[in-house]
Amino acid sequence: MDVMVALVVAAVLIVMIMYFVSAPKLDTQGYLYSVCDDFLTVAGKDGSLAAAANGDVGQVDGFLYSMPGNLCLNLTISNAGGYVVHSNSSVCPSPVRFVLCKRTIVNYTNGYVTKLGVWYR
Amino acid sequence: MEKKTKAEDRGMIFTVDMVTALFFFLVIILSMLWVWAEAYRHMVDYRDVQSRQERLATVSSMLVKTPGSPPNWESSGGVTLSGVDAIGLAREPNVLDEGKMMAFMSADGENLRERMGLGSENFSLTVTEDWAGTPRIIYYMGDSTAGKERMIARRYALFNGSRVELKLEAYYNKK
């Protein structure tokens, strides 16, 4: 009886170990970096970030909402003093792991720091 | 004088306990072999998907971030892309060039696949404006019927002053 129990327990443990060894998670952080970088580069070049810093947030928010539904984004634009001039995010649960990109923009003589967090829904 | 022995008096090689133990032993060994084979198959699949994913991400980055090699490949390569080492569609990072797009669309698919570094995978490329609202496809090329499995990379760029989504899809069959 003892041997049977030991064998069953050993078999269960071996199956569990093999399952966890054989099902590693794909590294998808690289794709989040790509999306993050694309967003800030495009929004920086088409003037959406500068416009948002001036209070015209329609363009940048529209871009944010056009991102794929499986992604969540959180955009924050702060001035040099750290005061947040604009912040918006997708309606999403809080992230466990996320990618954060930063970009500095200069609008006339004022500098702004843009931060974008991206994670999977 | 010869003595006859009854069956129950003889030494028994296969007792019920031994047969049961052998049965369970074989079941466990066979189960472990099966689990090992499955685990190995998953590992091979995982490595395959991982390498394809990395390759697709690299190719999509080359398309939206770089002008290609040489930078004026669109005017020197022709349809066969002779002398072209790498394909890029950007005038500057995340700004697509119309001339490069036109050359890309008119180039031979096999040569494109090779220059892009996609290996044996078939691909399709879709450039869409207003992709989240009323999508307007500006450019499309490729063969979406080849391969049962599909992998997608979505990138974002500017094209003629408008934001566009560049969707690169790779099609393949599992090993």
Query: Mean of the pLDDT scores of chain A?
Result: 85
| Overall pLDDT of chain B | 84
Strand order of the largest sheet of chain B: 3-4-7-8-5-6
Q: Structural class per helix/strand content of chain B?
A: alpha+beta
Widest beta sheet: strand line-up of chain A: 2-1-4-3
Low-confidence stretches of chain A: none
C-alpha termini separation of chain A: 49 Å
The class by helix and strand makeup of chain A works out as: alpha+beta
Number of strands of chain B: 8
Beta-strand fraction estimate of chain A: 25-35%
Please tell me the CATH architecture of chain A by its name.
Answer: 2-Layer Sandwich
Choose one word for the global shape of chain B: elongated
Helix content of chain A: 40-55%
Describe this structure in words.
The complex is a heterodimer of chains A (121) and B (175). Chain A is rod-shaped and about 80 Å long. Chain A is built from four helices and four strands; from the N terminus they run H-H-H-H-E-E-E-E. With 121 residues, chain A is of the alpha+beta class. Chain A has a single domain, classed as Ribosomal protein S3 C-terminal domain (2-Layer Sandwich). In chain A, a hairpin with a 2-residue loop joins strand 3 and strand 4 (110-120). Chain B is an alpha+beta fold and 175 residues long. Chain B has one domain (29-172). The longest helix of chain B has 50 residues, at 16-65. Chain B starts with 15 loop residues before the first helix and ends with a strand. The chains are: A alpha+beta (121), B alpha+beta (175).
